């Protein structure tokens, strides 16, 4: 686990089986059947039908791992009820501690044990010892990081008195396993999703606005995934898997491409999840808000993977002391939080380095804030001008992109060598001699990718300037424009989407986390 192959995310299907991918024929059949029966069954059993569908959805990945999500659900449900009855007494705190250890213990065993074993053997090997002579090699249960954190947040919210414990186990089980966001989020809070499920019998169905807006989001998500993310992934994999053969232009193109790939890939899953839930009358939290328009690293984390960043803020950063302490302790809290955030993505030094880099970015930014302000005052810099804001955005994106190199690279050494080659292997002529079209995408494929990125930029500009999601913007337009855009995107997915024998139902990157 310490070292990762370049196309690990694309091969995750070999670990888990086919599953019900959002971009598969299986889901195209599964989802309409679930929704149709959801609309038909009696109101009092709606949640039971969704629970059954959600467990089927999960078992399609690896049926035997259903015992894990069931155990996690049962333990957190029982603990929350006990903690609430104890009213924060010593017994309640002890039960909460046991629950947290159990939940994190499951994560450690399945996600980090091989990393721990590999690291321990490297250290002990210097004195001729080792713990085990081969990796434990357990299969990573899909979505375990997401549903573990969601279940833990419920127990902690009950302990804090922010929500009443759910008495109906099956309703709570649906909260933990709700299929649209089960595998890759958003990581929902009980205060939002569980409260909606408690009034599921009263939800208005056959709501035209909800259904159309939800379907718009799902189509937009599929466009992001199949036309943009899966296409740019070909270039990214080509360069990262053989980075030692390329110059600065190809390396910068691949690093930028990965930033776009992981954004479109993960944002597409969130869009489809939010859209699917909306069709059924549920509102999931937004997970992305034009992160690459951020003008600082701090702002980036208010816009990127919002459900996870707010989880770490509420359950790690603030309990550590947050910012209500000395500057040294605040910096310590930041580093710990971002280090844990990095490790959340997987057992590997590259993930840890990625998290620490983001923590250091924010610390350095805070330390240099006064200096930058004095420089701006000295040169009478117009900090509210478009050019200044654009420069902030470009610099922030560059810093984020450097961190993405560590996130994507096969190991720390590969990441360092990759960065070094960017600064020592300049080849600007590659822009003009056609070499850029030898990185896995020919001229025609590059043009399709460029067109997709232009549409992505327009959609994000609407979100950034008008504060509207894609579905909200389309809902305001006249019917011919709205359906024209949707039909054009659907045609683009069919004609220009990356699928076929080699690429059919490509995995979403965050499935490996």
Distance between the termini: 12 Å
- Which class of secondary structure composition applies to the elements? mainly alpha
Helix content: 55-70%
Taken as a percent bin, the fraction of beta residues is under 5%
The pLDDT mean sits at 87
Attribute tags:
513 residues; mainly alpha; 2 domains; 21 helices; globular; disordered N terminus
Characterize the structure shown.
- The chain has helices at 12-16, 25-40, 46-59, 66-86, 90-124, 144-160, 169-177, 179-182, 190-198, 208-241, 248-279, 297-303, 306-320, 327-344, 349-367, 369-378, 386-408, 412-424, 443-466, 470-475, 479-496.
- By secondary structure, it is an all-alpha fold.
- It folds into two domains: 12-203, no CATH class; 207-288 and 428-513, no CATH class.
- Helix 7 (169-177) packs across helix 9 (190-198) and helix 13 packs across helix 14.
- Mean pLDDT is 87; it is low at 1-17.
Short overview:
This protein has 513 residues and is mostly helical. The protein has helices at residues 12-16, 25-40, 46-59, 66-86, 90-124, 144-160, 169-177, 179-182, 190-198, 208-241, 248-279, 297-303, 306-320, 327-344, 349-367, 369-378, 386-408, 412-424, 443-466, 470-475, 479-496. It is globular, with a radius of gyration of 24 Å.
């Amino acid at each position: 686990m310490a070292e990762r192959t370049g196309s690990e995310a694309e091969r995750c299907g070999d670990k888990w089986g086919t599953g019900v991918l959002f971009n598969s024929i299986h889901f195209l059949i599964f989802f309409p059947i679930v929704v149709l029966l959801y609309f038909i069954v009696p109101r009092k059993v709606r949640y039971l039908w969704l629970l059954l569908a959600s467990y089927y959805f999960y078992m399609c990945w690896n049926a035997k791992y259903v015992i894990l999500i069931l155990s996690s659900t049962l333990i957190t449900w029982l603990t929350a009820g006990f903690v609430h009855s104890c009213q924060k007494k010593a017994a309640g705190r002890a039960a909460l501690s046991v629950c947290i250890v159990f939940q994190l213990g499951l994560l450690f065993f399945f996600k980090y044990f091989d990393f721990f074993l590999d690291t321990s053997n490297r250290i002990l090997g210097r004195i001729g010892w080792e713990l085990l002579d081969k990796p434990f090699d357990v299969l990573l249960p899909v979505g375990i990081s997401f549903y573990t954190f969601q279940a833990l947040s419920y127990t902690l919210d009950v302990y804090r008195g922010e929500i009443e414990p759910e008495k109906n186990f099956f309703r709570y089980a649906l909260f933990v396993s709700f299929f649209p966001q089960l595998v890759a989020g958003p990581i929902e809070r009980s205060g939002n999703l569980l409260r909606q499920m408690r009034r599921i019998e009263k939800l208005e169905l056959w709501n035209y606005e909800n259904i159309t807006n939800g379907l718009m989001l799902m189509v937009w998500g599929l466009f992001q995934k199949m036309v943009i993310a899966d296409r740019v992934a070909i270039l990214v994999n080509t360069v990262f898997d053989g980075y030692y053969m390329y110059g600065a232009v190809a390396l910068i193109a691949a690093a930028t491409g990965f930033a776009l790939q992981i954004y479109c890939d993960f944002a597409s899953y969130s869009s489809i999840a939010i859209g699917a839930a909306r069709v059924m009358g549920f509102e999931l939290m937004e997970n992305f808000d034009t992160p690459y328009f951020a003008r600082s690293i701090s702002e980036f984390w208010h816009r990127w993977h919002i459900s996870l960043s707010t989880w770490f803020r509420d359950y790690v950063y603030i309990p550590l002391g947050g910012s209500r302490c000395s500057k040294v302790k605040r910096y310590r809290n930041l580093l710990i939080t971002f280090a844990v955030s990095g490790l959340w993505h997987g057992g590997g030094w590259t993930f840890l380095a990625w998290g620490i880099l983001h923590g250091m970015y924010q610390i350095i930014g805070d330390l240099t804030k006064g200096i930058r302000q004095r420089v701006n005052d000295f040169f009478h810099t117009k900090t509210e001008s478009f050019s200044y804001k654009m420069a902030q955005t470009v610099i922030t994106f560059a810093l984020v992109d450097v961190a993405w190199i560590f996130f994507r690279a096969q190991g720390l050494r590969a990441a360092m060598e990759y960065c070094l080659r960017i600064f020592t292997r300049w080849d600007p002529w590659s822009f003009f001699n056609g070499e850029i079209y030898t990185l896995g995408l020919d001229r025609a494929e590059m043009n399709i990718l460029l067109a997709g990125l232009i549409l992505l930029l327009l959609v994000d500009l609407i979100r950034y300037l008008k504060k509207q999601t894609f579905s909200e913007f389309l809902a305001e337009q006249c019917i011919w424009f709205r359906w024209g855009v949707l039909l054009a995107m659907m045609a683009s997915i069919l004609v220009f989407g990356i699928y076929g024998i080699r690429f059919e139902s490509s995995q979403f990157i965050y499935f490996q986390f």
